[in-house]
Design brief:
disordered C terminus, disordered N terminus, eleven-stranded mixed sheet, globular, 13 helices, 33% helix, alpha/beta
């Protein structure tokens, strides 16, 4: 999640653009694809209030432009000191975004309090355009209705609202209907998570490599209809955006044809300039993740511990860790290592690791063959 305003250029070798802090593992939901397999109660070892303040001070050590601090979980609303943490970050000048779960806690009073606290953006998850799909994935009857209610209230409160959607076999066919729904709701950004089979998600069906490509081409088309489109664990979206901007034709495959046909039915009007987010970030490059217990990871879906903020400075871990330096230098193996898009994209390091190829291996979700001719970005 990025801020609604354009960010100054940042040197990703020196500072991340996003610092995600898993403030707690506690959550009232039981989503089928949950990365951390969140629990009903907080786990022992959570960073304390004082340690949370110290972590925020460590984020400030990166200097300006400060990274955006995303408070996530579990459900960040279950941190009793959440607003003290927000206040400390805001007093320091660090922009804050929240990623709460949609539960009864995210009611009108809470939304008003979030807006008054100076939070820059709020993201919530929507995985289907209908109740039967979304509620099955989220594991709670009626959750679809509650999610739409929360989105409308967040938009009405003047917050920058981002909706997160996970792409998997159960949700891929409905992506166009979700896009049309988000436009009607007045959402500002759509962040599409491409499933990494880890945590509870290891039991969920993923789509094929060609279907990943189809979805990326569809997302480029969807970005021409009002809101910003970003991807998580699908940096190959940037390859698709570069190719389409250079005049490449979209694929002639069933999933893409079905999605774009549904999109055109929902949006019969003329397309606008695409708003596809293409900053060259990836796990460990521009992104860093802190677990509930202070352990630091390249990203939330890449469970390789780099250190702990209780004993090391976050800035030192980010700038000096050998794995992160290799990721930022695009020192990949396999197809990702020989790809002309290695720096712009670099593949999902989390998916390569989950597939047994190591954190520098090739991303099995990308069908691009580097030897084949294709438009290459300047």
């Amino acid at each position: 999640m990025t801020s609604p305003a354009a960010r100054p250029h940042a040197d990703f070798a020196r500072r991340p653009m996003l610092v995600l802090w898993e403030t707690t593992r506690a959550c009232g939901l039981a989503c089928r694809h949950c990365r951390p397999s969140a629990q009903r109660q907080a786990l022992p070892g959570e960073l304390s209030r004082g340690e949370g303040h110290q972590l925020i001070d460590q984020v400030a050590e990166f200097g300006r432009p400060y990274p955006i601090l995303i408070l996530t979980g579990g459900d960040c609303l279950l941190r009793p000191d959440l607003f003290e943490l927000i206040g400390h970050a805001r007093a320091t000048g660090i922009p804050v975004a929240l990623s709460p779960s949609v539960t009864p806690a995210l009611g009108p009073e809470m939304i008003a309090r979030i807006a008054a606290a100076g939070v820059r953006a709020v993201s919530v998850s929507l995985d289907g355009a209908t109740a039967d799909v979304h509620d099955q994935i989220r594991g709670i009857p009626g959750h679809f209705h509650d999610t739409l209610t929360a989105i409308r209230a967040l938009v009405a409160a003047g917050l920058h609202v981002q909706v997160n959607t996970t792409v998997m076999a159960a949700s891929a066919a409905g992506l166009a209907r979700i896009a049309v729904l988000l436009d009607a709701l007045g959402v500002h950004a759509w962040e599409v998570f491409f499933l990494v089979q880890t945590g509870r998600g290891s039991r969920i069906g993923a789509i094929t490599a060609d279907e990943h490509d189809d979805v990326c081409h569809f997302l480029y088309d969807a970005s021409q209809h009002g809101f910003v489109v970003r991807t998580v664990e699908a940096p190959f979206f940037r390859r698709v955006v570069a190719a389409r901007r250079a005049g490449a034709a979209p694929p002639d495959r069933p999933l893409y044809r079905a999605l774009v046909s549904e999109l055109r039915r929902g949006w019969p009007g003329p397309a606008r300039p695409p708003r596809a987010h293409t900053a060259a970030t990836r796990d460990g490059k521009g992104i860093i993740f802190i677990g509930y217990d202070g352990n630091v990871f390249p990203a939330g879906f890449l469970p390789l511990t780099l250190g702990n903020v209780r004993s090391q400075r976050l800035s030192q871990i980010y700038t000096d860790d050998p794995l992160l330096r290799a990721i930022r230098a695009a020192k990949f193996t396999g197809r990702c290592g020989s790809c002309p898009y290695a720096d712009l994209c670099g593949g999902s390091r989390a998916r390569a690791y989950a597939a047994g190829r190591g954190p520098l291996g090739s991303d099995p979700a990308c069908p691009f063959q580097p030897a084949h001719p294709e438009a290459i970005p300047a």
